[in-house]
Amino acid sequence: MKVANSVRLLLFLASFAAAASLVACKQTYIVYMNAAHKSAAHVTHAEWYEAHLESLSIDPARHLLYAYSTAVHGFAAVLLPEHVELLRRHPAVLNVHPDPLIPLHTTRSPHFLGLSPWPPVSVNRRYSIDPVAAATDVIIGVLDTGVWPESPSFSDDGLPAVPSRWRGACEAGVDFPSSLCNRKLIGARSFHRGYHAAVATAGDDSDIPRQEYASPRDRDGHGTHTASTAAGAPVANASLLGYASGVARGMAPGARVAAYKVCWSNGCYGSDILAGIDKAIEDGVNILSLSLGGGSAPFSRDPVAVGAFSAMQRGIFVSCSAGNSGPTRSSLTNTAPWIATVGASTLDRDFPAYVQLGNGERHAGVSLYSGEGLDNQMVPMVYGKGTQVGSNSSKFCMSGTLDPNEVKGKVVFCDRGINARVEKGQVVKEAGGVGMILANAAVNGEELVADSHLLPTVAVGAKTGDLIRAYLRSSSSPTAMLSFRGTVLGVQPSPVVAAFSSRGPNMMVPHLLKPDLIGPGVNILAGWSASIGPTGLAKDNRRSAFNIMSGTSMSCPHISGVAALLKAAHPDWSTSAIKSALMTTAYTEDNTGSPLLDAAGGSAATPWAFGSGHVDPQKALSPGLIYDITTEDYVAFLCSLDYSVDHIQAISKSPSNNCTRRLTNPGNLNYPSFSVVFGRKSRRYVKYNRELTNVGLPSSVYNVKVIGPPSVKVSVKPTKLVFNQVGQKLRYKVTFASTKVGDPVDTAFGWIIWSNEQHQVRSPISFRWQLL
């Protein structure tokens, strides 16, 4: 009997192990199909995908997650390794890749950007209509963590009826009745099958975790913040617990918002993102804003790039964040040329706080702490007082590392890094500390990002941190006072490129300069979810209708909103025309008249950090000339990258494209910027062609000016462009000749500027010398 039981137990364990192994082998894949193989017997693409899976003995009911109809020809499915091999061998399949996990990456910014007040006070004479008012017909689709519809930023007071062309929906879900949408928030959808499949195949048999909403409702706050930054309604007396008070509004307060929830507790899955883009295109959005992005990958394996290509084909402008991995070189994401890649900069607003040390030194920092300060008496300070002798983890104030006996009643000095900034404050508070000084690491430099900490906290730069550490080492009983001074405006210099903003050069396509431009992304006030405190920590019980956040996630919707204004003013412009206008009119001097600085070190910034410069909405409305790019141009660009025909067809959805046309060099795309790569011994000459379209006065004459390094001779032919009518196109050629044998680490920058009395059309140039 015992033997039989043992055998049964062994059989059970074996079957359990086999089942567990099967689950572990399962994974979600995105499959791109060649539409030329679609049979006429299948009315819809979904029917074709299902029949295709059935022909391979794959049950669509169990495996198929999404059947895409617009963004791509293809589907997402949970598959076993043998399924993947069958698919890859089938002639109808163009590409198969795993479903990637992609991370998520205001009262002052409209004024700082020079935007007109809302409601409009005058008519724009240049266009006969006010572009801000006209933006009521523009729809911005935001792919993020959802939306908090009760936020005052989504009030529809004064807005006319929803545009009749809108085909979207307000999907009901958990704690989200469809009645919550209105004339401002006109649509809301949720996409979680990719997320759910990842949880299930990871061995978790639960559905979406309880803390998540299986609906468009935003529990995280990120999506509400980005959506309200792009197109939030004006809200008087907005602030974060008293900080940054004023009238909060989005960049395009008249535009409509459609929220697509594609991001969940552990990030955003490519299959969900593609489904969101697929539906947004069908719904009829004009602008897509995606404050998310993964690492560098070929465009054919990047769902954001593939979906954005389809959006571009339908005249939808796509804005994406560049990433928060700066100041590391080549840390960019979302580098496809049909995407506007946006870096981050500071505003002229700050939240000063001060550290007074026992030796009399006073150091400046920043903070959004809103409670009682520590400015009445000196408090003892500690640093590195941990529970484990010899461990440095306590210096980072990581969970469980601080010794309460050493910390209680004291100000704790913490190094930035490893864990979240606000989490460090919670660790200090739980250990009995009464305050915190948070010091930047060398990589963060002197850039100060303010947080709404749970206890009195002052964030200081790396150099200040070194001075405070020296004091801590030299004093046997160090003390400090912390004080907070609220909000100040008119900070100089500003804007400054954020240290965290991801940088070039572009490793995916070295001949394409990215990012494209920068916009406000540091300490931005915008709408927030009422289900979470401003720190995002579970133990933060404070609630605010607004929050202050930093990241390229915040700069991206600024550009999305400004693009909506341009779309309203120029409804016939292509997506590349809008991006060209934003780029060629961007500025590169701060409010002191000096070149833009880089917060990562304080030296002058370069186009690898700011692209074409900082967005200037007013000038972008009238750029004079634009660089236009067609879908066929983008396909020729892809062909010049030596992608396989299948991969190009997967991106372009053209079943017959065989690269009959390709660019001689990827840098020959008619882009508003230049990236020149010289070989060390060969390729000392690089030639590019460009074409400019007149969108200014009918009779316009432009002369060229070249700014470049001594090591490169730049020749432009012709040097004068004479336009006789609006819409006329004229070409020019540029020859870049290196006058030296470069080193692989050598870099330099320059500008090509076409100008007349009314306009300056500026294009940055980056130069690199490398072994080829």
From TrEMBL:
List the InterPro entries hit by this protein, alphabetically.
PA_domain, Peptidase_S8/S53_dom, Peptidase_S8/S53_dom_sf, Peptidase_S8_Ser-AS, Peptidase_S8_subtilisin-rel, Peptidases_S8_3, S8pro/Inhibitor_I9, S8pro/Inhibitor_I9_sf
* Stretches for region Disordered: 206-229
User: What keywords appear on the UniProt entry?
Assistant: Hydrolase, Protease, Serine protease, Signal
Pfam families, per database record: fn3_6, Inhibitor_I9, PA, Peptidase_S8
Active site: residue positions? 144 (charge relay system), 222 (charge relay system), 553 (charge relay system)
All copies of the PA domain together span 396-467
- MF (Gene Ontology): serine-type endopeptidase activity
Q: Biased composition, Basic and acidic residues: where in the chain?
A: 207-223
Which residue range or ranges hold the Subtilisin-like protease fibronectin type-III domain?
Answer: 668-766
Q: Which domain of life is it from?
A: Eukaryota
Gene3D superfamilies documented for this protein? 2.60.40.2310, 3.50.30.30, Peptidase S8 propeptide/proteinase inhibitor I9 (3.30.70.80), Peptidase S8/S53 domain (3.40.50.200)
Q: Which PROSITE patterns does the entry link to? A: PROKAR_LIPOPROTEIN, SUBTILASE, SUBTILASE_SER
Query: Where in the sequence is the signal peptide annotated?
Result: 1-25
All residue ranges annotated as the Peptidase S8/S53 domain in the record: 137-592
The family note in this entry says: Belongs to the peptidase S8 family.
Q: Indicate what this protein is called per its UniProt record.
A: Subtilisin-like protease SBT1.8
